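Hi R.,

Here's the chain you asked about this morning:
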Amino acid sequence: MNPIAIRLLNQQLAAPLFSDPAEVVGHMGAMQAQEYRMMRWAVAMRTRRPSARAFKRAYDSGRILRLHLMRGTWQLVTAEDYWPLIELCSPKAIAVTKGWMSSNRISIPDEEYARVSDILAQIAADRGSVTKEDFVQALAEKDIVMDDHRLSYHIRMAEMSGTLCSGDLLPMKATYALTASKVGPQVKMDRDEALMRFTRKYFQSRQPATLQDFVWWSGLNISDCRRGIALLGDTLHVEKWKGRDFYLTDDCRTRGFRKGRFLLIPPYDEYLIGYKSRDIVLSPEHTHRAHNGSGIFQPIIARDGIICGNWTPFKDDCRATFFEDGHSSEDITEAWQAYSRYLTT
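And here is the predicted structure, written out as tokens:
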């Protein structure tokens, strides 16, 4: 088994199968979207013809949505997966968020939650797509004033409860919309069906991966993750690699990988954040160059799937630093040109 090549193929980072950004997000199940600008490249680079405009069309139409969900962090999901994932993931995510609030000595009474949630929902319904500043103004008109940190928790809770999701895509600033208007009414799904669907999407897009990887990524309890794997039955099989058990689907992609290719991977990308153990593609002595262990991830360069350097987005020229010998900025010219074309198409 070549786990690196298999991951590149099934994550759509090599020989991508999809032309539509929403199809990519649907294949992945959910994608980390911590960095508002770079989440677009994370999706686009997994399409056949990366296009910033194609991502915006899918986002503005509500086919791709951004919200706080798994592990209480930002995610991209499709409208089709939105309600099943809310039902499956939000109880644990809300509990995690309340734990953070408690550690920060923030307590919000139920009455405040209800009142503020109603105001946020109303302003989003009235305007269609709103910013946090719009929320501040609407609350002030009701004589409610709070610091940014407290308001952020209110917005996050409204997202995880299925009240708010993303609005239109702006260049630099997140917007919010009323879920009932953007996605439509809640669609119920049997929990086992939702869990099986969620588990399948994880392994089809991140294989080979371990149970521990799935537990980390999903934010679910280990018992739920084991049940999800059991529900998939014979469609999953186990292969051992260096003493670890990895799950793969029976229709796993194994052909299409070509050597010598560099990838410019955005921060918080699923190529790293989709796994608890990242040593397969990232040498432990270089871990600090990719992430700091406290949730901050950097833009990284991969050659044949191995993380070997960092790059700088949003510059006019190609800037790279390598921590593996034998590479220079000239090596990533082709990858930089692909990224530059994406920005203008």
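One quick note: The chain has a mean pLDDT of 95.

Cheers,
M.
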